Amino acid sequence: MYSPHTVQQLTERLEKPIVLVGLMGVGKSTVGRRLARRLDLPFVDSDSAIEDAAGFTAAEVFEKYGEKDFRDGERRLVARLVEGRVGVIATGGGAFVDPRTRELLNARAITIWLDASIDVLSERTARRDTRPLLRNADPRGTLKRLADERRPSYAEAHIHIRSGSGGHSEVVEAIIVALDQHLRQ
Length: 185
Ligand code: S3P
Hints:
Blueprint: H1 4-13, E1 18-21, H2 28-39, E2 43-45, H3 46-54, H4 58-83, E3 88-90, H5 99-108, E4 110-115, H6 118-125, H7 139-154, E5 159-162, H8 168-184
Parallel strand pairs: 1-3, 1-4, 2-3, 4-5
Helix pairs in contact: 2-8, 3-4, 4-5, 6-7
The protein binds shikimate-3-phosphate.
């Protein structure tokens, strides 16, 4: 584990926001919040920012206006977020799949793909019924299909971190090491 001093030096070297991408249930929000705390940076969750802007939850916006309008709003919002101060941003699972959002994020941020097995994702997403895309008879099959469809997009992120069934703090430490290496390149 990096010492607080080493982590502080890492934070000082950051010139761009850190953006977490990956499928629903992988832990973008929880890991993002912890990573921000460890790096002493602000944290923003794009789904919560949508909620603040729209007055409805991201799931309600998705269901009321449909996926296309949701993605358009998400793209504008993510663009605004990466213009802001250096911080940690957790995106909704579909944001990085949109080619324009992906290009923007890869240009303006350090992008990190959090990845986990379908078993882990389906176990985690089953705990809460808050995801419109998984409110159907076969949420596991949907996750599998989305994983296959989205893998090539997620793979364009700068950094790839696999999250097993271990705790989120392990993932945070793996990100710190990977960020350090990325900044040395
Ligand atoms: C979505 C993921 C959700 C949310 C919306 C669509 C997706 O965010 O943005 O339901 O297309 O993968 P989380 O990844 O935070 O669950």
